[in-house]
Amino acid sequence: MLRLRYERAHYAVSGAHRNRRTDLSIEGDCRLQLDYGVLGTFTVLWLAIVPTPGPNSLLIIHLALTGRWRDVAVALLGNLLAIAGYALATLLGLALILTALPSVRLGLYLAGGGYLLWVGWRLMRGGLERWRMREGGKELAPALSSTAGPFVQGVTTALANVQALFFLASIFASVGILAANLQTGLAAVAIIIACNGAYLALLAWLMQRAGPRAFYARHRGLMEIGFGALFLAFGARLIWRELAGWV
Fold this sequence. Notes:
247 residues, mainly alpha, 81% helix
């Protein structure tokens, strides 16, 4: 009788243990489940978007032509962290909140566009001075590195492009990232970091070669004027697009 009770208790405990392991396995599968169809669509779309010229690629190219590889790497790290922050904020619905607060959204656009305009103006001013002093043999310090380190430049340049927050929201919604589970959303953020990091690192590697750096050194004044004009254009476009909705 005692043996029978022992065997029943043993089977009960064993069965409960097996059921617990099965439940944990199912829960683990749910926790690790990713929507590969959505991620595949997003990856293809993002690969087409990454090469689009913008302030981030412009900053990395300029630093690659004027600075050391370590400076470029630090700036790229800051840039990617800021982009990841925007992507995570999009998953949390920050873009929708800002859409409901137009005054705050306008302020962010003005601040971001103003920063890009300031960077462009400093570059153009430095380029003009270099161009005028070319015959005198004098040299000026690099404009972008005089007041901020490369990490800060990377972070602020990415954050200044406020429209990226709303652009990400539209992309996430169109491919189904916002409707997918959290794991799929975080995987999409990882894809953004991997694609952006690889592309910008490739640009930096190409621009750090002897040929492009020698060309930039020979025509530095005019090149900085050109870089400055592009930053001014990006900043002005950012502000104009937002102000157009208020007119």
